[in-house]
Amino acid sequence: MGLTVLGLSGALSHDPSAALYVDGKLIAAVEEERFVRDKHAKNRMPYESAKFCLEQAGITPADVDVVCIPFAPISLLGSKARWHYAKRYWYAPDRSLDAILTGNRRFKRYRKKILWCLEQLGFDAKKVRLEPVEHHLAHASSAYHCSGFTEKTAILGIDGKGEYATTFFGWGENGKIHKIKEFYDPDSLGGLYGAITEYLGFEMLDGEFKVMGMAPYGDAAKYDFSRLAKFENGELVINTDYANVIGFRRYKEKGKGYYFSPKLIEWLGPKREGDIADDPYIHYAAAMQALFEKLALEMIDYYLGDILKETGRLAFAGGCALNVKLNQRIIARPDVKELFVQPASGDAGTAVGAAAFISVKNGVPVEKMEHVYLGPAYSNEDIIAACARHPNQPQWEKIDDVPQEIAKVLVEGNPVAWFQGRMEFGPRALGGRSIIGCPSVEGVADRINEQIKFRERWRPFCPSMLDTVAPQMLSVDHPSPFMTFTFDVKEGWAERVPEVVHEDGTARAQVLKREYNPRYYDLMKELEAMTGNGVVLNTSLNRRGEPMVCSPTDALNMFFGSDLQFLIMEDILVMKARDGGN
Q1: Mean pLDDT of the residues in the chain
Q2: pLDDT of residue 356
Q3: Is the Cβ–Cβ distance between 490 and 463 less than 8 Å?
Q4: Cα(80)–Cα(57) distance, integer angstroms
Q5: Residue 581's pLDDT band (boundaries 50, 70, 90)?
Q6: Considering all CA atoms of the chain, what is the largest pairwise distance in Å, rounded to the nearest integer?
Q7: Exposure of 92 by Cβ count < 10 A (0-12 exposed, 13-18 middle, 19+ buried)?
Q8: Angle subtended by helix axes 281-311 and 189-199, to nearest 10
Q9: Residue 441 in contact with residue 411, Cβ under 8 Å?
């Protein structure tokens, strides 16, 4: 065996995950939350995920050459990061001094925890080669090294923050990443978006998608959010009178401190509560999204414009890379030929990025990321055994032609829980662990919402489609295997598949090539034969507030905890209130 690299993330106390490269091939990548059934798996170590990666590769801890983590010590003298933080947080002297005097305490604590986790997995803590990779370098690597781009590539990373950095601009060539510029905490576009997400009544790290989904219902011109942040002379400055505040500057409610200040409440009114998206909050969401797009595009121009003019290739990661509306604007730029967005752009993806970075550094290039079916898979036997053990005593039957049978069920207007092959890595269900519906059946999205997902009414449902359909339905021809972009939908298609077109006439599409998920592809072919549209409504297989389903038992729990009537796991169909026999 050549080089085996295990990447472990979770330094920022959320989204722990593990990824394993063997000789440049990504064997497995999975989030801890899926195993422990706790969304974002806060304050946990990537124990189950690392264990799965080793099992999937059929190796022992002794076979691993390097373990790497996407979190590194930041030098006081070699970097401006800690000084910038201290200066900008002068109003909280304890934090400022902490950054200068003990600025790597978090790293040391994390390293200790990781070594403990490795010991539990059977590693020899004295012999293990543990390599730290700077957080934003791991994001950059996860985008650039997985993109498959061979020419010079512009690299962008935007998230809340890593060690101190919040934003990364660089370029990659011949496998090497060159840093151009970083911004540091509290000057974080992701942090600002997160603070407004909290103000709009959602959880940071989880609700940003909801703000983005709410934005098309509002009018961005109604409120001027420009006071919150500006980008001038190459520097991003967040107005910390309003957002990204710490300590006594925070707005507090019921004992919880938020990342915005009482001053924001004075300006915009009380924090949003409940599930209804109404005036003025929809306009605030629209104004925040507009400001976010404006500043991000200005920063891209300033730091990456020349490289983009030269090559047209951009690789993007960090939590903000999941902002599909920004990505649509980036693709529309004349200087961008192709944008690669790392499908697990959030912190879970840094396990892949750190491992890819170390692999390349050791002379082993990594393969292009063509798909994210990198988690566990289960056989019919596993599924039947799970049914036998389950307290609800599910009735099941084995079916011969899954795509054809399930397409019939969909066309009759029923949503179906679809559990096939290996679980996806990253936040998007892509036909491994999905709830699917027929997008031409009126009201199916509402049915899924009311019966199963219990999610906010304004959030769009998305289409998966055949690669042959994409050029007919989408306004731009651009690869979209991972649902990381929205596209304007061509005339006539909103009427054909109304359930997957959002309020603003866009769709966040997964465009599938058959080789990466043949059964899902064949299902869409059957739908095309029956309805004329090779498109399926696709949302993640989970209930609100829960992680995506991993195992057959998880799927059965979710199925019996919802009003779903049909669950197909591999060839095993489970139905409720029908005379299905076993």
Answers
A1: 95
A2: 98
A3: no
A4: 41
A5: very low
A6: 72
A7: middle
A8: 160
A9: yes
